[in-house]
Amino acid sequence: MEHVYPDYPETVLRCPCIPGFLTQPNRRTFHQWLRSIPEWCERWGKLRVTDGGDCVHSESATNALSSYGKRDASSTKYEYDEDKNLRNDKVTEMIKVFGYGRLDFILALTLPAAPEFCVDEPQFHILAHINEAKGARGDASIEPISYTKLGQSFVLDITSVKRVVGRMETRGEKSGGERVIIDRSESLCPTVFHQEEGFEDDD
Hints:
Elements: E1 2-3, E2 11-22, H1 31-34, E3 40-49, E4 55-57, E5 75-83, E6 94-111, E7 123-137, E8 146-147, E9 150-157, E10 161-164, E11 166-170, E12 178-182
Antiparallel strand pairs: 1-2, 2-3, 3-4, 3-6, 5-6, 5-10, 6-7, 7-9, 8-12, 11-12
């Protein structure tokens, strides 16, 4: 089954879906912001990007007992905004950055109004819970990018998820091993044919 929410026409969510997913654990902390999060929401397992995009399977929807073993489609490329001058005293300058990580699960929920943040009405969001590939930043479709382990987890809007990527483990440069990202974006290897001058087809 596939489902498209009106607020996200280019995002197609696919089963499995848990309509009554508990967002807040029994042991609760940070009561101030937890009051702004609904207790229940929908949790989806798969995402299909429209216009010929990829189908990404979250880690929660991966069957470890399948014939594919530990291979899955949860490794993803995402885009986010970052302050270019974060580590110096210059004026803030936001830029687009690509990162890589594992899609853990997808949440669809409506957050209440928050006048203190100029949000006057409840807003619907589809959020991607991602576990980053530590240090894997840049565009692996045009330069080699690798990582040795996963890092912190965070949440992004689902539209930040761009495509599924592959990963290949190697010990060629690091004795402890590393995973090289395989990004099959169009920019990696565009297919272009040029017919040489004077060439004639015998047929």
